[in-house]
Amino acid sequence: AGTEGPSGPAGTAAVAGKAPTADILAHSGRLYDSWATELKATTTGNHPLWALQKTNTRTGGTTWRCKECHGWDYKGKGGAYGEGSRYTGFPSVINAAASLSRDQLVAIMKGSNDYRHDFSKPLGDLHVGHIVDFLKFGMVNLTPHVDYATKKSVGANVAEGKRLYDGNCAACHGADGRTMKWGAEQEVVGTVAVDNPWEFVHKVRFGHPGSAMGGVGIGWTIQQAVDVLGYAQTLPVK
To answer: Quick check: pTM over 0.90?
Structure first.
């Protein structure tokens, strides 16, 4: 379980049929990535649903992240996490978001389909609504934009990607993407772009949990995020 009443950016969740503001939408994408980090909340043990799978051996806070079950491409077992160490067998959220109403998605987030999926206590109604905002208004099918076999960007304007990167990303990440490093493997911009382009696009669009970066907040389109991906895939990976 998480802490009660976490706080995040001021704002209300969207009502049915109405998109949230850009800053709330960016926040909602970061919640999908890691709501505990974004809200400075804590989790205890594994997520209750984690026991339904045995293939992904990660434990603790990672098991509470939406992306760990449903993937950076939002397709769960039908996408990039359909094999390998990240496989869980949990489903896509793309079809659900397209076919269900906002109220139905909120109910699922509160455990209507399975009590073990009740996020109302750790998140509260506001942030449950924000995650649903991401599902309804922020999530994009990335299949047309990333080749699953090669992991290469599809249809990227690399020159435009360089312009966007130089103007918005290089100040922190460096011209070659190696100024900031993270994780045990000391990954850099090029590493993520090449190894996990779906994660890269999500981070470009919504930012990293706990940070204010993110293209959605400044009006970037999915094409602009893909353009940056195309350029970033030319950068050094170490």
So the answer is: yes
